[in-house]
Amino acid sequence: MSDKAGRPKGPSMSRLLLAAVFERQGASEVSIAALVDKLGDRSFGWTLLLFAIINVLPWPPGATLITGIPLVLITGQMAFGNHAVWVPDFIGRRMVSRATFSRAILRLRPLFKLLEATTRRRGAWLFRPDTERLVGMALLIIAIVQFIPIPLSGWFPGFSLLISSVGLIKRDGRTLGFGLVLGVFSILLTAAVIAFAAAGFDRMFPHGLGL
User: Fold this and answer.
1) Mean pLDDT to the nearest integer, 78-83
2) Are 77 and 137 a contacting pair, CB within 8 Å?
3) 3-state helix, strand, coil in the chain (%, to 5)
4) Based on CB atoms within 10 Å of each CB, which residue in 66, 158, 170, 193 is the most buried?
5) Which among 71, 14, 59 has a CA at the least distance from the CA of 186?
């Protein structure tokens, strides 16, 4: 099977992710280390995608304070110019439900199909080592915003990182740029919510809490 330009098409991203989840049959859970090993090359893009998917799973309020840690570690390594991602053992040993993760992939399949249909190698300057460090810094800021436990606002940085990871995997500067723009929007949204909350607090307690 080939694309419109006649280039052979590899397996879809959703198929590769599902293959990584179900490589070892029998167990109801799979370790994060096993998923990272199975996904192989372009470690920053794939691991960022993996943890971005985990982060947009339905979690209790405040769970991003935990699920966002790997995203900060990965983007931080990218910002410091590491050539390959390193996942600490305490994260790699964590188990993920195969059923829950596969359902998330299936729900995101339309997005993957849209991105794969429109991605191609372009904007090569974004993937030079010096520029990638700047991209890593931007992604690190977005990942840090993910930590702030504000209802619903965490979805935007999560999807920003997800789309950016596809751009990294496909070496598509336009897709990466779109993810970064969405990340800027998520930062502004979070700042606006915090500002409104602070203004509301000042109106309710003009003289502070009086402690």
Assistant:
1) 87
2) no
3) 65, 5, 30
4) 158
5) 71
Query: CA–CA distance from 1 to each of 7, 9, 83, 120 (Å)?
Result: 9, 6, 32, 16
CB atoms within 10 A of CB 136: 22
Percent of the chain with pLDDT over 70: 78
Single-letter code of the amino acid located at 168: L
Tokens 């799979």 found at: 30
Residue 74, classed as helix, strand or coil, is helix
The length of the chain in residues reads 211
- Report yes or no: 141 and 187 within 8 Å, Cβ to Cβ: yes
Helix (H, G, I), strand (E, B) or coil at 20: helix
Q: Which residue in this structure is represented by tokens 């990466």?
A: 176
Measured in whole angstroms, the distance separating CA 25 from the mean position of its chain's CA atoms is 26
Residue 2, φ and ψ in degrees, nearest 5: -135, 165
Cβ atoms of 54 and 67 closer than 8 Å: yes
Exposure string for 187-208, b = 16+ CB within 10 A, e = fewer = bebbeeeeeeeeeeeeeeeeee
* Geometric angle at alpha carbon 181, from 80 and 153, rounded to 5°: 95
CA–CA separation, 69 vs 21, rounded Å?
21
- Widest CA span of the chain, in angstroms? 71
Question: Mean pLDDT throughout 135-146?
Answer: 91
Q: Which residue has the higher pLDDT, 85 or 23?
A: 85
Distance CA 16, CA 49 (A): 12
Q: Using an 8 Å Cβ cutoff, are 182 and 145 in contact?
A: no
